[in-house]
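During the reporting period the student researcher (J.K.) took over the structure-prediction task from the postdoctoral fellow and processed the backlog of single-chain submissions. One of the processed entries is reproduced below for the supervisory committee.
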Amino acid sequence: MAAEKNKEKVVLAYSGGLDTSVMVKWLQLEKNLDVVAICGNVGQDAQDLTWIEKKALGMGAVYSKALDMRSEYAEDFLTKAIAANGMYEDTYPLLSALSRPLIVKHLVDIAHETGASYICHGCTGKGNDQVRFESSIHALDPELKILAPVREWDLHTREDEMEWAKQHGVPVPTTAAKPYSLDENLWGRAIECGALEDPWKEAPADIYTLTADPMSAPDEPEEVVLGFEQGKPVSLNGKKMDLLSLIIKMNKIAGKHGYGRLDMIEDRVVGIKSHEVYECPGSLAIINMHKALETMCLDGVTLQYKHMIDQQWATTVYNGLWYSQLKQALDAFCADTQKFVTGQVKAKFYKGSMTVTGRKSAYSLYDYSLATYGEGDTFDRSASKGFIELHTLAATTWSKTQGPAAEYELQKQSENVHVA
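J.K. obtained the following structure tokens:
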């Protein structure tokens, strides 16, 4: 279908599901816009996505394209997440928040290429993703207008959408409504809603697809060796791999052993506490092994400070501010710390757990001759007494003047007065 002359265009973030399929037609009928439907594959689907292109074109879109963004996602986004040990609230590896700015980057580029005035997304009005999509759009091109149909149309339930689709010739899945809200990409899988809205109930077994039940996972542990160069994973079990392939492989290994399940109460950007369940086998394994190598290659003060930076980085990204001055500055700090984070980490998977069992690096700050209590010890014990005196000088001075020692003297003086 050719674009109508002088008709404005909208670039739609299109998944092929019910919501965005309805939007393809709704944007034409209710907003009188030509629709450019773009589907971004960030690891949620390895299959051929040309069916999505054809479906959108069949519903009247003037242009439709499925873009494989997986390699770009791994190299340009996940490398930064690994450098920052990116885990929101020190728990969750940020899979959804990491993919949104990449998708938006492509949507904005295509809006420029096609001359579109609008970008449209299918996010709800109470979730995090609306913030992430729109914050990224505003940062990359404040002149683009944003449409969020779910926040304004009168289709309040899935049944409403199905009926609207039937009336307007929109092909939609005929299967029953999914009981959960799902999001998946290369970095993991997020599950919410349905039975999970009761935080006291254990998550149903049928929600997991990336990880085995730890109880039925293999009875034999499996050891892996992950190689890093300047903080970036580059090899698995001695085999050099591009990051995309490495993450896919690590997802399979860790998932097979039931590792990577998370169940948490999470603080959303919009102020709601939400019960979330995640499957993050590869991402959790990689981040925790990266942390293990950092403990060997970064000094203690830097590690302590970097932990605060890592948490700020994760919160900033979670809040949709990937394209921000603060995020760029945090990236610069993390990148500088990774210059010598090069080496290997060994870890063992077993029935839902991963244990780091070894690490080595040519740039290690661990010095055996200083650490050992056996033969070859080079640590000068005679220096400790003077060090402790200087280390505690401020505390000793405070104690004598204001602290426990001063209080003791005051107490003695008070007791002497009473005795007299």
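The committee noted the following: The two ends are 106 Å apart (CA to CA).
J.K. will present the remaining backlog at the next meeting.
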